[in-house]
Design goal:
Blueprint lengths: L2 E9 L6 E9 L7 H14 L6 H11 L5 H4 L6 E2 L9 E8 L3 E8 L11 H20 L3 H16 L11 H13 L6
Parallel strand pairs: 2-3
Antiparallel strand pairs: 1-2, 1-4, 4-5
Helix pairs in contact: 1-4, 1-5, 1-6, 2-5, 5-6
């Protein structure tokens, strides 16, 4: 079984208040909750992004750690959705391929050294997390057990300590541990 998942989050205005998202999943899943695993991988990778200042990463991690309290904040979105059209800048891109193991790719475009957004990656990361949360919540909102797993995963990610538990070299393993603790599934590394 092979599953391919892709996420694109694009910002269309300088105020970062107009967002377009594209999210797809193709193929049979090797895990029971692929959207939850993708969420875990995306969030752990976002937290260790080198463009994200440590203070912003800590604030974002604290917000993520609120778990079920995040549901109350979902109605207060700091941006509007637009139809996904491609080519937006800045853009956060992520993909995951699962076959015998998990392969995760993460990219950010339009936030380089000469970009007008280079000093705003904390804001971009916070809104990207929020967009990913919106996507998974929409899939899980009618099932209390799935929502509970989402909130528990967010709380567990928020509780990870930067360094040994979560760093740029182990974020996929950290995501897999969180996913496994929440679902009871074992994922081959």
């Amino acid at each position: 079984m092979q599953t391919s998942m892709q996420l694109e989050i694009e910002f269309y205005t300088p105020a970062l208040d107009m967002v377009g998202t594209y999210y797809s999943r193709q193929g049979e899943s090797a895990v029971q909750y692929p959207d939850l695993l993708f969420f875990c991988c995306f969030v752990t990778r976002l937290l260790v992004e080198k463009r994200l200042p440590l203070g912003d990463a800590e604030r974002l991690k604290q917000a993520i750690g609120k778990g079920a309290l995040l549901e109350d904040a979902l109605s207060d979105r700091p941006y509007n959705y637009a139809e996904f059209r491609g080519g937006g800048r800045p853009t956060i891109s992520a993909s995951m391929l699962m076959d015998k193991s998990v392969h995760f790719r993460f990219g950010r475009f339009g936030v380089g050294a000469f970009s007008r957004y280079r000093r705003r990656f904390g804001e971009i990361a916070t809104r990207a997390f929020r967009a990913m949360l919106d996507i998974v919540y929409e899939k899980y909102k009618d099932d209390d057990a799935l929502k509970d797993m989402l909130w528990r995963a967010a709380s567990a990610i928020g509780a990870l300590k930067f360094g040994k538990e979560l760093n740029n070299g182990n974020y996929v393993r950290a995501a897999q541990r969180v996913y496994g603790d929440i679902t009871g599934e074992t994922i081959p590394v």
